[in-house]
Structures are given as C-alpha cells and as structure tokens.
Amino acid sequence: MSTAQQLNTQFGIKGHLAFREDASGLIIAEINNAQATASLCLQGAHLMTWQPKSQAVPVIWLSRDAKLAAGKSIRGGAPVCWPWFGAHASESAFPGHGYARTVPWRVMESGVEPRGATRLTLRLVESDKTRAQWPHACSLDLTVVVGKTLRMEMTTENTGASEFVIGEALHTYFQIGDIGAVRVQGLAGCEYWDKVGGSTLKRQDGDISFAGETDRVYINTPDECVIEDEKLKRRIRVAKSGSLSTVVWTPWTDKANKMGDMGQPDGWREMVCVESVNAIDNVVKVVAGSRHTLIVEYGVESV
Predict the structure, then answer these.
(1) Spatial separation of the C-alpha atoms in residues 114 and 277, rounded to whole Å
(2) What is the per-residue pLDDT for 1?
(3) CB 80 within 8 A of CB 44
(4) What is the pLDDT of residue 215?
C-alpha cells in the first residue's frame, strides 16, 4: 500500500487534503477547506469526523476512547457495513456487519467540487481473506464530499456473471447535546424490527425519543430523517437514496459500559446513530453487470 508521502504527492490538494500516518501505523486523510473539516481513516474508508465551520461542535461523533488499530473497527464516525448487515446469515465466525470496515482501502481519486467542497474516492482492496468470506466478483467504492454538507456515495458493482445479494449500511454516529433531549423525526407510521424487544415487528407512533436502550431497523423507509437537538439548538438532516431501511440505535448505560470504548463514563449520552441501511426486508439484489449506489447527505442548521 502507498505511504502517506506517496499519497500526498499523488492525491494531496493544497488548502484541502493531506495524508498522515497515525501512531497506530494507519493512514488518515485530513480535509480542511473553507467550509468544513473532516478526517477519514483509509482502513475501512472510515470517515471519523466532520465539522462544518459554521458549527462550534462536530456533527459526526467520534468516541474520546476510540482506538485505531490494524484490523479493528473504530468507535464512532461512519463505519461502512458491507456486504452484510448484522450477523452473517450462515457463518457465525464471520464478523458482524461484514469486513469492509476493518480492511485496507485504496485511494482512487481526489478533487475539488465547483462550490469548493473536497472530494475523495476510495476502493476496497480485495484479498484471499475477503474472497473467502465473499466469493463474488465485484468492487466497492466510497466517495466522500466534504463541505457545508457531507455527502457519501457507496457503490457496489457486480463484475461477475451471476447475481448476488448484499446488506449494507453507513452506520453513522451523530454528535448531540444529550440523548434525553433529542427527537428523531421522519419515521412516524413506519414499521420496525425491535432488536431490544425480541426482534418483534412494531409500528412507530410519532417522533422517536429515548429513555433506554434502542436498536430498531425501520423498513421501507426512503424518506429524510431529522434529528432535533434541543440542547445544541440545531437540526441535523439525513437525506438518502438507494436505501430503504433506517436503523436508530443508542446503547444506554449497561451496554455502553460493556463496550469499553464509548467514552466513559457518559460519552454514549452525546451520540445517536441514525443509519442509512439496506437490511432484512430490504437487502439488495445486484444482477450481473449492474451497479447499486447508496447515497446519503447530511446537513445541519440552527433552530
């Protein structure tokens, strides 16, 4: 794989994008333009932070106890879950949420958008280990556009002769003032699988508020979601296409304490996951020679 110096020579953009090697040995892309700052770990194509310059507080949450290590996922940011979501359907030894978030990705392109946002495209690097878990001919690209909004495009291309089915997610953690003072709008009336309540199918009544562990997969939900944050006095918009499921998750005290990297003692109170997903009822069939793209765009405004 390329060194940070080689990446800076080939893809670095003055006033926009630079690469550095972390103490862990992993390479981080640092974006700092007139509109926003962001950081992305090339392992997992894992966007770790995003903060528009209009905001005093980051919009994407990264645990203060997040650990960077080869082959390990990072707590916070926007992990890429692919080519399955949750546990593998038949192989219990395979990693939950797939392997994409823990393997190397290669930088393919960088550039500046017409309105000044910074663009970076990465591709998952296949290996004997990944092919043992996913023996299908395909490619996975992630394009991140960092500006006043954050846009992420994840494209699966079937380069083989037979179709396959994927589950996927951008498992995004959002920075909030306090979990007890936020509401998630846009899912009223939708059905969801309640993972805390024994994987039962329920229907959402009104906005989502939080008073305990929440882990829900909302199905057939293509519409925009909004996180209303009373404490930070702002609204985060989550608009998407190519995604028909939405996951809403907070671990609450007991589960957060068991995780050990949520930013003890109360880091979990300052985050909520609203994930753009294709899972369960909404997994995606990708026929030979075709592409599927999941797109999300995050924006923030004061209220």
Answers:
(1) 29
(2) 85
(3) yes
(4) 97
Residue 197 confidence (pLDDT): 80
Please compute the mean of the pLDDT values over residues 202-219 and round it to a whole number: 97
CB 272 within 8 A of CB 210: yes
29, amino acid identity:
A
CATH value of 4-178+249-294 in 3.40.228.10, 2.70.98.10, 3.40.630.30, 1.10.565.10:
2.70.98.10
Name the residue type at position 2: S
For residue 212, the SS3 value is: coil
Q: Which residues are catalytic?
A: 171, 275
Calculated CA dihedral for residues 80, 250, 67, 58, nearest 10 degrees: 80
Q: Pinpoint the alpha helices (H) of 83-203.
A: 128-133
Does the predicted TM-score (pTM) go above 0.70?
A: yes
Q: Does the pLDDT of residue 25 top 90, yes or no? A: yes
Q: Please compute Rg for the chain using Cα positions.
A: 18
Integer CA distances (angstroms), 135 to 129, 138, 292, in order: 10, 9, 18
- Contact between 79 and 44 under an 8 Å Cβ cutoff? The reply is yes
The alpha-helical segments, DSSP class H, found in 59-140 are 128-133
Beta pairing class for 118-124 and 105-112: antiparallel
Locate the domains of the chain by residue range.
4-178+249-294
- pLDDT digit string, tens, across residues 47-72: 999 999 999 999 999 999 999 999 99
Q: Which helix (H) or strand (E) holds 81?
A: strand 80-81
Alpha-carbon gap, residue 293 to 46, rounded angstroms: 17
Q: What is the pLDDT of residues 83-133, one digit of tens each?
A: 999 999 999 999 999 999 999 999 999 999 999 999 999 999 999 999 999
